[in-house]
Protein 1
Amino acid sequence: MPDDAPLISTTFRLVIAPSPLVKSVKGGVVNRASWVVRYRNSGSPFDDVRSPKVVRVGDRLGTVEQMEKHGPALVLRREERWRMDMVQRLQVLSDAFGVAGFEDEVRDVLHDMVGTMVDECQVDPLGNLICLRGEGPTVMLDAHMDEVGFMVRWIEADGFVRLAPLGGWDERILLAHRVTFRTDDGARLYGVLGAPPPHILSPEDRRKAVSLEDLVVDVGAADRAEAMRWGLRVGTPATLHYPFQTLQGDYVTGKAFDDRAGCVVALEVLSRLERERLPYRLAVNFAVCEEAGLRGARTAAWRLDPVLALALEGTIGADVPGVPEAKQPVRLGSGPALTVADRSIIVRPRMIRFLERLAEEEGLDYQYKLPTYGATDAGAIHLERGGVLAGVVSVPCRYIHSPVSTLRLSDLEATVRLVAAFLRRAAELL
Ligand SMILES: [Zn+2]
């Protein structure tokens, strides 16, 4: 196959957003790598949302007849995938399914996006995607691939589905959302977290939050057997899927900016430093299971044995009405947030002073993430081996651990610039 050939075999459909670089194809079965795709026409039977979706090797994309009915598809060529700009990367990554423990779609997308920007990519036994370039002592960047989500806990005899949380949810926000399940074969199934009508509730009950324990998902099944025939079973992962959306100003919203924002920062930095020589081995770990207790970062750090590490996060923006400034861990529009301490790490002042100096030299606004909210992969990394000098730089995001996380692109860009400066100068800390 010539190098510039689309990596999709003969038959049909779709892909990435408007770009002069994409090419129409006729359709078929996915034959290589993974593809981020978008149907040109909305209302296609293959996809119920007008957002990109990932298809994988072996996926059938539909029939030629369906394709003809619903319009041509576009497919992105390999060499163009990693050139997608920052916003598009964020969109594609946020929309990908990546509940803790089920990060494979996000990993495939990242693997494609990293492309030739590194010397080598490895997937470790836990599913971390480790990308390596250069030689020497190891400097580690870490961004977690997983998002908070759920798995099926139980299917009732009447077909209603109960969920167990994967990661830390605020149970007050769950009611009346749509739920997207991903079955073993990658198909999507949908349901709603419905509620009894207010008309039949007592005034006290109307004011009460309903705990996840008491919520059920209505998937439209007549009974348990039907739900199971569709592919639901104990352990099927699920998320609250809201497609990426641009708001006004430079605000964007999506379901998984914690921590796909960090993943985008890592990608952008790799891209901007691609032609620069670094006097160390750079290891970028796209980690699994952060939301389940910083799990992937721990084994990756042991394997990589870094001398220096930086965790990249999307973190707790709370600059909203009703929250006093002293209780806002970070604010949107104030630039990257430097962690001084959270529940998992007390960052050494040497690291913080270094980051401050870099931000000032770059002319970037920055802020401190107020102690000691949250925990990050740096907490696991800095305790590996004989101890690792580690810090955390975060993109401020409001409403994390909800389907509508929201950030400002100016903060994202400033974080990229700070982390790029960090890598250019990291040798000063070695
Ligand atoms: Zn996170």
Protein 2
Amino acid sequence: MSNFESVFTLEATQLKFGAGAAEELGWELKRFNLKSVILVTDPALHAYGLIERIEGLIAKAGVSFHRFEDIRVEPTIESLQKAVDFCVEHPADGFVALGGGSTMDTAKVSNLITVHGGQIMDYVNAPIGGGKKPPGPLKPLICLPTTSGSGSEATTVAILDIPDLHVKTGISHRFMRAALAIVDPELARSTPAGVTASAGLDVLCHAIESYISLPYDKRPKPASPDERPPYQGSNPVADIWSLKAIEFGGQFLERAVKDGNDVEARGTMMLGATMAGIGFGTAGVHIPHSLAYPIAGIKHSYHAPGYSRNYGFVPHGYSVIVTSPAAFRYTYDSYPDKHILAAELLRGHKIENPGPESLPSAIIDMMKAVGSPSGIAELGYDEADFPAIIEGALKQQRLLAGAPKPVNAKVLETILQQSLKNW
Ligand SMILES: [Fe+2]
């Protein structure tokens, strides 16, 4: 036997998709035999009557609930701890999360700590946290995403911001996976254009990074199945999900941003987000996401259009997309054909004389089309910040191990240099 991995796994979240799917929440609560739940949600959704609607469905099913809505976009230990404290005070059989990635991740962490106890940092990925594995399954969590981005409804990961360390990191384990994702395009109708843009660019990065990640069979064989990481590298099954998500992004993202009532476009982007979540939940993201964590974590001066928050922050999708053109320029020669196919799916047509710039330029055109910031300069960074960003990114070895080429500080510096302004 070689020392290379020879096995990959597919573990996917149960999915219920379609316009009107949310109406079946009551039936699903009964299916999971839930008598009481914590509804974790985003207060911004009051404006659209969504919270009241979902609460009506829960109540109609005869399920009692308590609502927690003190959500922070890009959760911190403090904001998560508030949620945990609330859930400890209000014991329930399970969780319903209604909102975007931050909401779903808050629900995942609340579920973990209320079931197994301990401190949040115990479970955060090493070396930043203790890297402790959840000792057993959690309570059922039903996710109803209202944006089409994080794919959190389909993954085993919860992401959190640790401002003191200027870094974002996560908790990842198969027990963190939601029991069910109900993806209903009608829930996304009211999402502001800026949120749809950032979230959709995140979807593209999930899918493209996963598709060109270091293949599973080019990675070291784990000592035991228990040591096999959730992010296993590209493989024939993950690739199917990733490629379809890239194609959907190319076809529908711009339309979804420009017209909130384009239910076909928003719906397909939601499905694409979940599909990319299944792809990256198995294959894994790497360079742009490793840089995105310090980019979102170090400075909080950017105010993104469309996000109704009184504090500055870099929406996750923007923090990821800004370095992706340079990252894929760097990785091009590892798998040129894969980069070109991704570019063609994004463009929706064959590219004449493709090359290293095909994918970066396809991404940049998409960024322009949906109103993305042009680079890290617009997010408040200059060259003096590079060492801190690089240091933060190098802490994400769990992610960087998935890059199709080795990544060191010098490589990251070049990528950052090229990412100050993409146009
Ligand atoms: Fe992401």
Protein 3
Amino acid sequence: MKAKTLAVAALIAATATTWAAGETATTTAETEAPSVSVADGLEAWSRIYEVASHPRCSNCHVGESGIPMWSGPSYGKTRPHGMNIAAGESRIGAEFVTCATCHTRSTQGNTVAHAAPRVDMDWQLAPAQADWFGRTSQEICSQLRDPERNGGRTAQDIAEHLDHDLILHWAWDPGGGREPAPYSLQEHIADVMAWGMAGMPCPNG
Ligand code: HEC
Ligand code: HEC
């Protein structure tokens, strides 16, 4: 795990210099040539979309409903989380039963089939604005590049956030017979960086 984190840190450091030059391309795409072509950026985006729309990610990235989903190969039929779970505006279930009641905090994952997944941070839904479940590639792309709706992040901030977030590490190693998110965390981070350097292109422009 340590080696993995270091490799990712090295990747970010290696791309940071290029990034500094490429950063303005996201805002002044017409005047500055992006350091990654738009075509390559769109290819990176299509892989990012495969990840974002995968159940290991989108089951938590639901909108205003605040209801996590159970879906994907190991879940049979797609359906709302059992036991009438709702996250409420708090997104952690504070108004009802908190997610942490079952998704306890631990450095040891819970790999028993059908047991509640756990990581060493508070389990909770993503912000309602990061509403990805059942959304199209264009919809998710527009949200992720919009600082008004993505927590004010640049693509580099997103890439760094991905490395820090233990829930994301879980999504690639979910245990309990669940299908992991596609590609790997490192590949996903590299794709987010490349997409950013291409000016965050979306399929419909
Ligand atoms: C257990 C629920 C959960 C799962 C599963 C999950 N996320 Fe999230 N996600 C969150 C929470 C909570 C936040 C808000 C964290 C923050 O802003 O610090 C978040 C925020 C994000 C953000 C910040 C962007 C934004 O618009 O706010 C990105 C990018 C992201 N997640 C990607 C992913 C990816 C990729 C996966 C799958 C590999 C994934 N998430 C799986 C809960 C989840
Ligand atoms: C009463 C216990 C309980 C509570 C409370 C609870 N969960 Fe769960 N959750 C479970 C169990 C058990 C599973 C595993 C189901 C399975 O694998 O068949 C699960 C699975 C999930 C999954 C599916 C993970 C995947 O594989 O994609 C998500 C997402 C999730 N919960 C989110 C939440 C959120 C968000 C909250 C709080 C709003 C919450 N849960 C509250 C018991 C609970």
Protein 4
Amino acid sequence: MLNTRLNCAIIDDDPQDARLVARYIDKASTGMWRADCFHTLDEGKDALASAEFDVALVDLHLGPDSGIQLVKEFDRKRGGTPIIMMSGAADVDIEDTALTLGAYDFLSKDNLDARTLRRAVNHVYSAHAIEEALRRSAELAQTSNEAKSSFMACMSHDLRTPLNAIIGFSDALLMAPEGTIREEVVREYSGYINQSGKHLLEIINTILDLSKIEQQEFELQKEWVDISELIELQLAVLRPVAENRNVTLNAMFRHNGELLLVDARAMRQMLTNLLSNAIKFNQSGKNVMVSTSLNNSGLEVRVSDEGCGMTGPELKLAMMPFGQVTNDPLLARQGTGLGLTIVQSLMEQHGGELTIDSRKGVGTSARMLFPSSCVSDDAIKVQA
Ligand SMILES: Nc1ncnc2c1ncn2[C@@H]1O[C@H](COP(=O)(O)OP(=O)(O)O)[C@@H](O)[C@H]1O
Ligand SMILES: [Mg+2]
């Protein structure tokens, strides 16, 4: 710890005592630790609230106030600055009270020296770092647990909808007295059952893909890929779908033949997910544009459309697993609400990120940003 730069707050109403402790700190750390002195309870509160200090040394008596107040207010359970109490006179009861309330240590100013201070500050700093790490992992466990529960809740809803349709329509067929049901109705109901079954299969397959990706089982096989070529191929695959909706697909590359270090299969999957959204939520006669560009952080692949767009809260929902904004049931059934979640996961695995800008009624622009480490030197040279 002696090689770590620490900021110490000394909160002591006696300026002479405070200076002495500051000198010990300086000597104990051979100048590595910085000490700032504060002389009243209020100054002490401000100092601790600023969260600028790694350790605070607090005198028991602060004029008319008690340093214990600071221990109470900057609760150790919530990760406040760790406090070492100091007192002129040794008093076992007060020491016990201070330690029970959350002070990390208690030192008597009578026999204080640089060595004692060094040991105490080191111990307290380490103990606090360990507590913080534990607190953070407990918080993380809690949030992942909540995320898992909401995922399960959404998943059961999404599985139930097509299942209910399958059961409902097949019940109707089975229960109808013999000879009463017309052939065209049988066809219509079987169509619904077939559609719902396929939709269910798609949801289950997507969930399996996602869980593989999230459990890192989907190991990225990174290779240098000609990104403009890969995009052109993907556009060719989706062109019939776009033509069906009278949407035009365009591409604009920073330069042709640019190399990007990615998993080609993941890249195709991400492009498909973003392009199918851009086509599906677009309007007849409008355009979709895929473009690449280089900026300081890396290479950006952007998919933009001139479709229905989303408001801020709608976009938030869209980014959530199973989140679907559209109130067109036909469009909703053409997806699972997991497409963007998958792109987000895969981008994280590439060390990059997905960001989406959207304006209601104007359009949406999804950007996949790949870090500079995925961009070939040639690309950087061309930029320079
Ligand atoms: N380009 C877009 N324009 C408008 N809305 C979009 C766009 N992309 C996604 N959305 C909204 O976000 C939702 C979630 O998208 P996604 O995760 O790909 O799921 P889905 O399987 O429904 O396509 C979509 O259902 C849609 O409501
Ligand atoms: Mg989608």
